[in-house]
Amino acid sequence: xxxxxxxxxxxxxxxxxxxxxxxxxxxxxxxxxxxxxxxxxxxxxxxxxxxxxxxxxxxxxxxxxxxxxxxxxxxxxxxxxxxxxxxxxxxxxxxxxxxxxxxxxxxxxxxxxxxxxxxxxxxxxxxxxxxxxxxxxxxxxxxxxxxxxxxxxxxxxxxxxxxxxxxxxxxxxxxxxxxxxxxxxxxxxxxxxxxxxxxxxxxxxxxxxxxxxxxxxxxxxxxxxxxxxxxxxxxxxxxxxxxxxxxxxxxxxxxxxxxxxxxxxxxxxx
Length: 270
Known about the structure:
Strand content: 25-35%
Number of strands: 15
Distance between the termini: 27 Å
C-alpha cells in the first residue's frame, strides 16, 4: 500500500494489567476509527510495576496479553504493534521485553525481544538494572507487511544506530520504537534520536512513549512522535495519554532514497 495512516498511542500504564490492556484496546479502536491502518503501542503498555513484581507478570506467547491484542487487531482490522510486555520463556528465569506485530486477522507476524538493556548505578542519585530481571534478545527483526517492511526495536535500542542500519539493510521502511523514556533523558535526546534514526536510514519512525510515572518514581517524557524520512516531525503527542496520527507515503520515501541515495553509497557492512 502506497499511502496509509499510522497511529502512535501514548499511555500512562500502571500496575493494573487488566486496566492497562482494556485501555490499550480502546486506544487501538480509537486509532482505527480515525483511519489508522497501523497502530503502535508504547513499551511495557500492559504492566508497569516494581522490579520485584515482574516475575509474577511474565506470560508466554500466546498468552492473555498477546491474545487480547490479537483480538483487538482482528476487531479493528489493523496492523498492530503491541508495544512490549514481559514474555516468559521456559528455562529462562528472567523476562524478555518483547514486542509483537499482528496483522488485521489477528495473526502474529513477528516478535522482537529487546536487545539493549539499561543498567546504570549513580551513587546517591539513581540505580536501575534491567538485566537483573530481564534477559536480552539476540536477533534483528524485520517483518514484511501489506503496508511495507517494518523494523522492530524498543526504547533504549534508540541509542544504538548500528541496530537501525541493520534493519534498513534488511529492507525496513518504517522503524517502530515503542518506548518509556524518562523525562530527564527524553528532554535532552528523544526527538534528536528519533529524527536522526529517520534521516540516516531514510525511514519513517513511529515512536510511541509512556507519558506517566515510572515504577522508580521518575516522570516519563511522553512526546510520542511520527517522523518522516526527511526528519520532519509529522505528529507529536505532548503530555498525557493520547493518540496521534500521520500519513505514511511510501512513494515519498522512495523519492527521498532516490534523490539522496546515501543508503546505496555506504561502504561499511551493516
